[in-house]
Amino acid sequence: MKYLLLGILFLWLPAQLPAAAQAAKAGRGGVGNSHSPTRKAAEPAAYPAPVSVPVPNWLPDLSRPRQPSATVLHNLVDTKLDVRPDWARQWLQGTATLTLRPHFYPQNQLVLDAKGFDIKSVELLSAGRKGRDLKYSYDKKKLIIALDRTYQRTEQYQVRIQYVAKPNELPKGGSEAIIDDKGLYFINPLNTEKGKPRQLWTQGETEGSSCWFPTIDRPNQRMTQEISLTVEADQKTLSNGLLVSSRRNPDGTRTDTWKLSQPHAPYLAMLAVGNFAVVSDTWRGKPVDYYVDPAYQYTAKQVFGRTPEMLEFFSKKLGVEYPWEKYTQVAVHDFVSGAMENTTASVFQQQLVQFTPRELADVPYDGSESVIAHELFHQWFGDYVTNESWGNLPLNEAFADYSELLWAEHKYGADAAALVQRTKLRIYLDEAQTKREPLIRTRYNNHEDLFDRHSYDKGGRVLHMLRNLVGDDAFFASLTRYLNQNKLSAVELAELRMAFEETTGEDLTWFFDQWFLQRGHPELRVTHSYENSAVLLRVQQVQDTLYQPVFRLPVAVAIWNGNQATEHRFVVTRADQTFRLPASQRPTLVKFDNEGVLLADIDEAQSPEELQFQLSHARGYLQKVQAIEGLKSKSGDLLVSSAFRNTLTDPFWATRLAALEGLRRYRGAEGSVVRKDLQQVALNEKHGAVRSTAINVLSSFANEDFVKVYEAALTDSSYLVAAAAIEALAKAPAPSTRAQVARLQSTRNPALLTALSNYYGLNGTLDDYDWFLRRSQDAAPEVLYVLLENFGRLMNRIPPVEREKGVQRLENLARSHPQLYVRLGAYKGLNELTGSMPNLKGTLQDIRNKEKDSSLKAMYSLVQ
Asked: How many domains are there within the chain?
C-alpha cells in the first residue's frame, strides 16, 4: 500500500511548521485558489478580445506526458530465486530462473528490468540439457537478451541469470510516500549502531523489485514464485507464501525456501531477514504470524491480535474468503514507507506497531489498527486483483483506505466511522488547496507522484458515496462480483464500473466519469429560508467550473420540527439550484447532507440557534462536531458554554475532545465553573487523548495556576498526558516541578521526548546542553524534526564557546540525514542561532544551494 508517511508524520508536522510555511501549504494567497473569478461582459468588437482568466494554483501541468499501461510482450510465468546476502559489502548474490512465454506475438528477444547489477551469466535452460549461453546487452537498467530462436505464444522457455545486486550504488530516488526506491535495504549490516538490530528487507512498489532480482517490473505482470534464501543460522527469514523447506548447510548457514503457489505482481515480492521473535496465531487453519523485535514479543498480540477477526470480517463482508496460503506481518527498522502489502507478508515501519505496555494505552484504534486493516484489505484489492497501470492506482489504494472506515464501523460503531470519514475528507481538502487531479490519471511525470491524498483519502470518500448511492447490499455484492470476475488479474476502472452496473442494473457512467475521471470537488454554498409552508433550500456550486465540472450530487436533507426530523432526498444537477421542501411550520433546524456523505467543501448558513439545536439533537459525531465548530466564536454565551460543558460527558471520546477545544481560552461568565470542569476532565477522564487535550486547554488560560494538575499529570499512566503536562509547564515553568521533569529525561517515548525538547528549548540552561547532544543521536526521526530546532533555541542561551559540538551536529544533520524533515529541523535549529552567530547565514545558504530535494528547498525559503 505504502501506508503514506504523510499520514503518519506529516499529519502532525504541519502544526510545527512556521505560519508562513503553513500559509503556503494551504495555498492561501495563491492565484485562483478560491471560487470562480467574476467575469465582466466583453465590449462589442469586430473580433473578440482574448479573455485573461487566472489559472488556479492547483491546476497541474496539462502538457505532462501520457502514461499508458505497459505493453505486454512476454508473460512472466514463474520466478525462482536463490539469493545470499553479503552483509559486509551490502550486496545480494543471486541466481534467477525465469519462466516466460510470448503474450501474443512471436518474440526472439527478452527485455528485463535489472537495476544496478553485475551480470555474471545469462543462459537458456532446456529440459535434460546443460544451460546454453545467450548473448545480451546491459546498461545497468535494462537487460536485453537475444533468445536462441523465435518463440510462439504457446511456447514457454526458461532463462537463468547469475547476478550481484548492489542497491547502495543506485541513484537516489523516491517520493513522499516512499522516501527511497533502491528496493533492497541492509540495516546496521556491520552491527555498528548500538540498540539497532541487523536486518535485511525489501520494498518493491513501484519498481523496486528489479533492484534485487531481474524481472518485468510492471503491475500488469503476474508470476508464481519460489525464493531460496541462505542466511546465518541464527537469523529468521520471511518471504511470500509458505516455508516449504529449511536445510542447514556445511558452512554453518541455513537455506530457507518460500513458495507462493498463486501468481502475483512482481512489485509484491518480498524478503526479510533478522533476529525476529515470531508470535504465532491462526485463522481458519491458516497460519497468521507476527514478526517483531524480541523486546516486543509480549505485546505483539495486543497490537496485531485482531488480525484473525479482521480476516473473518473482511472475508464475510466481501463474499470472498482470504485467498492466500498464510498471512504474516513483520515490523522492520528504518522502513522507507509506513507499511507495504506484499502478498501474504505485509511489512510495517516498526514505530507503528511496536509498543511497550505503557505505550499501548495511547495507541488509538485509528492508529495501528487502521494501518493493519489497510494492509490486510490490500490482499484482496491490490494483490488478488491488481491495477494494470499506476494511473489506476486508486483501484488499490482507495479500497485499502476505505477499509479503515469499514473496520472502525464494524468494531467501534458509527461514531468511529464518522471520525475516519471527517478526518480523511479534511486531509484531502487540505491537499486540494494546491493540487487537484483526476483519480484515474493518464498524464503524469512520475508514477511516484500518484501516491498522494487523492489516490488514498479522496478515493476512499468516493467509494463511501458510491456505497451510499447504491445501498449496502448492492455495494458489497458488486465487490464480490468484481473480485471473482477479476481474480489473479490486472484491471482498469472499467472493470469496477461494469461490476457495479451488472449487479445493480443501472448505468453508472455518470458517477465514474465525474468522480474518477474528472478533477476537483464541489464547493457548495447552502442557504435556506421559510415561506408559504415550505423551506426554500438554495444550493450554489461555486467551484471554478472552467477546470472542474458542475457536479451531480444525490443528497439527503433533514428538516427538524421540534424533536421530529423529516428527511428529503433529491439530486443537485446545476450550478445554482433552489429546492422547495414542504414544512408545515418554520423548522428548528435544516441540515444539508444530513448523513455526511458528500465529498465537498460545504459552506452551510446556520444560525446560532440552529447550531445549538443541532448539538443537542445531533445524530452522531459528525453533526455534533460541526455544531461545536460553528459555535466556537460564541463560546462566551452562557447557553453555548453550557452546551459545551454538557458535551464533555458525550459517549464518544472524539466528541468530548471537540467540546474541550470549544472551551479553549473561554472568557465568559462561567469562568470558574468551566475551569473546574476542565480540571476534572484532566484528572478523571478515562481516555488519555481527552485528558491530554484538557491539560492543553487549561494551559491556554494565561497567568492562571494549574500546577497541581500538571504535577499529577507528570506521573499519569499515559505518555500523552505526561507530555501535555510538560508542554504546559514549558509555557509557565514552576520551580517545584523542574526535578520531576528531569526524571523523565531518559525516556524513549516520542511524545514525551518531543515535549521535553520544547521544555528545555524554552527554559533550559547549559546544564541541559549534553542532554540535547545525546538525544540528537538516538531520537527517532519524527522527534528530531522538533528537537533539533529546540536545540538551536537552547544554544542561544549558552556561551558561544560551548556551542561548537552542537552547531556541528546540526550542520551535519542538515546536510546528510536521509529524512528530509530531519534535515529541515536541523536547518531550523541553525537558523535559530543566526541572531547571535551571523556567520551561520553563509552556512545556511550553502545548505540551501546543495540540497537536491526541490520540496525541501521550497520549505527552506519559508524559514524566517
From this structure: 2
pLDDT per position as a tens digit, 803-832: 999 999 999 999 999 888 999 999 999 999
- Is residue 664 within 8 A of residue 691, CB to CB? The reply is no
How long a stretch of residues is the chain? 864
3-state secondary structure of 579: strand
Tell which residue, 623, 247, 122, 147, has the closest CA to residue 414: 623
Cell of 719: 505518555
Cα–Cα distances (Å) from 642 to 577, 634, 657, 668, 826, in that order, read: 37, 11, 15, 11, 45
- The answer to whether 694 touches 661, Cβ cutoff 8 Å, is no
- CATH code at position 560: 2.60.40.1910
H or E element in which residue 514 lies: helix 509-516
Asked if residue 830 belongs to a domain, the reply is yes
Residue 216: which of 94, 103, 95, 342 has the closest Cα?
Answer: 103
Q: What angle do CA 763, 766, 768 make, to 5 degrees?
A: 65
Domain of residue 560: give its range. Answer: 523-604
How many Cβ atoms are within 10 Å of 57's Cβ, its own excluded? 15
Report CA 533 to chain centroid distance, whole Å.
48
The identity of residue 352, as a single letter, is L
pLDDT at 48 over 90: no
- Mean pLDDT for the stretch of residues 86-111: 98
DSSP per residue over 338-400, as a string? SEE--TTEEEEEHHHH---HHHHTT--IIIIIHHHHHHHHHTTBTTTEEESSGGGTHHHHHHH
Which residues make Cβ contacts (< 8 Å) with residue 552, sequence separation at least 6?
510, 511, 514, 571, 572, 573
545 assigned to some structural domain = yes
CA-CA-CA-CA torsion for 471, 473, 474, 478, nearest 10 degrees? 130
Instruction: Report residue 268 as a C-alpha cell.
Output: 509484491
Domain boundary (604, 630, 664) is at 604
Of 284, 348, 281, residue with least CA distance to 315: 284
Q: What does the pLDDT look like over 303-338, one tens digit per residue?
A: 999 999 999 999 999 999 999 999 999 999 999 999
Nearest residue to 792 (alpha-carbon basis) of 776, 805, 806:
806
Given 570, 604, 638, the domain boundary residue is 604
Amino acid (1-letter code) at residue 836: S
Neighbours of 799 (CB within 10 A): 8
Percent of the chain with pLDDT over 70: 93
C-alpha cell at 257: 525456501
Cβ(437)–Cβ(519) below 8 Å: yes
DSSP character for 35?
A: S
d(CA 212, CA 204): 9
pLDDT band (50, 70, 90) for residue 171: confident
Q: Give strand pairing partners of 257.
A: 228, 245
pLDDT band at 174 (very low <50, low <70, confident <90, very high): low
| Distance of alpha carbon 757 from alpha carbon 735, whole angstroms | 18
Q: Summarize pLDDT for 639-663 with one digit per residue, the tens.
A: 999 999 999 999 999 999 999 999 9
Residue 843 lies in a domain: yes
Helix axes 394-412, 414-431, angle to 10 degrees: 150
Digit-coded pLDDT (tens) for 495-552: 999 999 999 999 999 999 999 999 999 999 999 999 999 999 999 999 999 999 999 9
Q: Which residue has the cell 535452460?
A: 125
C-alpha cell at 299: 505485546
**For residue 86, what is the enclosing H or E element?**
strand 74-86
pLDDT at 176: 58
Q: What CA–CA distance (Å, rounded) separates 79 from 212?
A: 13
A 10 A CB-CB count for 204 gives 25
- For the stretch 460-497, pLDDT in tens is 999 999 999 999 999 999 999 999 999 999 999 999 99
State how far the Cα of 346 lies from the Cα of 372, in Å rounded to an integer. 9
Given a contact cutoff of 8 angstroms between Cβ atoms, the answer to whether 429 and 33 are in contact is no
In a domain, 480, yes or no: no
